[in-house]
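Quick one:
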Amino acid sequence: MSVPAAPLDAPPGQPKKAATAAWIGSALEYYDFFIYGSAAALIFPEVFFDESDPATATLLSLATFGVAYAARPIGALFLGHFGDKLGRKKIMVFTLMLMGLSTFLIGCLPTREQVGTLAPVLLVLCRILQGISAAGEQASANSMSLEHAPPNRRGFFTSFTLSGTQGGQLLATLVFIPVAALPEDQLLAWGWRIPFWLSFVVAVVGYVIRRTLDETPTFTQQAATEGVPKMPLAVLLREHWADVLRVVAAALVASVSTIFTVWALSYATSDSVGMDRTSMLWVAALANLVALGAIPLWATLSDRIGRRPVFLLGAAGSAVTMFAYLWAISTGSYPLVLVLGIVAFGVVYSAANGVWPSFYGEMFTTRVRLSGMAIGTQIGFAIAGFAVTFAAQIAGPDGDNWSAVALFTAALCVPPVIAALTARETHKVPTERLGERAEQDTTGREKVTA
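Output:
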């Protein structure tokens, strides 16, 4: 058995600085990503697609939302490779700038009325760039915060990436509320562009924050002593293929987020239900506000009792609470929708959402952590992204078969449960030992060997 390496301590203040950079960067990055989801549900069917067939226009618009998720595994291959060779910081800066540029360009696109079918083609191209950017964002931010964090608080510090994501979603929703309240002609003519143009500010602020962050001590030592792998992907698939598959399955829990954020919003404001657009945006805003507080609390709990039980609660509980939320929408009762939306997304889903950055990241060694997280999550997220398109088809020609969508969402929560049940518990493993092969000593307790 090899002798454990000495623990690597981050410079004073770096764990908080890394967590803050992850929070703000992810919030700004996912502000861009989620304003697209709101626009795809509420605006784009009329601006970029054929208005004479509203059902098909909505289906195509929601499909463009999923296109970014299809691009994310490709982006993960490249960004994961370079993140494990060049460092976490370079990827964090690059992804933010790419997201800001592609989102700004969406706000500048001509409409279908102006250039015909070229308009949705350009929209899809910009959406692909968003997906490539998002592929490296969370994995690099999670790796950065995990490798800077104190060993006994990795869950808490890595959760800042996901609470930042919720913050970005909250910001996107708040920006869209006054925009959606504009008169219909102004909204479709120019109002929808404003949230996308604000991404210029996103890029500038994010760049200033992230460029001053130090590289992580574990990556720096890895590069200085053993060196970085020439082909991180080859090492990943040779030594960690089972964990990659486990992360792919676990990442399907993100379907809960896409169904809640996009399909449920489209369903609630459709003719079959007829709820007010602005009121439903407030449901999303308040649910995300609650999630901002719930995510670090769930993550802190995982530092004490383990990643697996918290993740399992979030995944299994979401299957039940999303069913209740979609049923509430079908009743048209706004108070019921508000309460169940907050419970389902703000509280229960946050258990899985808050703990997965540490849960997934701790499955891999430093030399392939960014690749492992990026590839595993982005393949799972790609399926989750198209869950919205499948839901639109499952809902039937009138788009009102909410129970079928609820069952579909619950089914997508089963693989994450299985993945968590088969995973190792890692919350007490030293950071420099994460991802190494586990054995059992004579007392039955887990130990780790090189």
